[in-house]
Write a structure and sequence with these properties.
Layout lengths: L3 H28 L4 E2 L4 E4 L6 H19 L11 E10 L2 E9 L1 E2 L3
Antiparallel strand pairs: 1-5, 2-4, 3-4
Length: 108
């Protein structure tokens, strides 16, 4: 036969455990939100620039514009995209880049 102290300790532990689950469940569900990626790749051509990094930034902005126009802004975040790629070439001391990636929505 269990003592009153054991029963009270057990009930308190169960109540604490239940309260912990009820408070963390919504947070956990939000932290692992679904990420949806398209099966196709979109590309954007940037402006010519002296620095390669500037040409890549321009290409990435162009990619975002293409994605926003074809899909919507929720897919246009480069950080969320998959299969990201830059194709750059240099001609007459200027860089031109294309940014390509599969657009994704949701958490990165």
């Amino acid at each position: 036969m269990k003592s009153k102290l054991q029963l009270i300790a057990g009930a308190t532990a169960v109540a604490t455990l239940a309260a912990g689950f009820s408070m963390t469940a919504p947070v956990a569900a939000h932290a692992f939100a679904f990420k949806e990626c398209k099966s196709f790749t979109l590309s954007g051509k940037g402006r010519r620039a002296v620095l390669k990094i500037a040409a890549q930034n321009s290409a990435r902005r162009a990619w975002r514009g293409v994605v926003s126009t074809r899909l919507n802004h929720t897919y246009s975040y480069w950080v969320r995209a998959e299969a990201k790629r830059y194709d750059c070439s240099k001609s007459r001391r200027r860089w031109t880049c294309w940014a390509s990636a599969k657009p994704c929505s949701g958490n990165p």
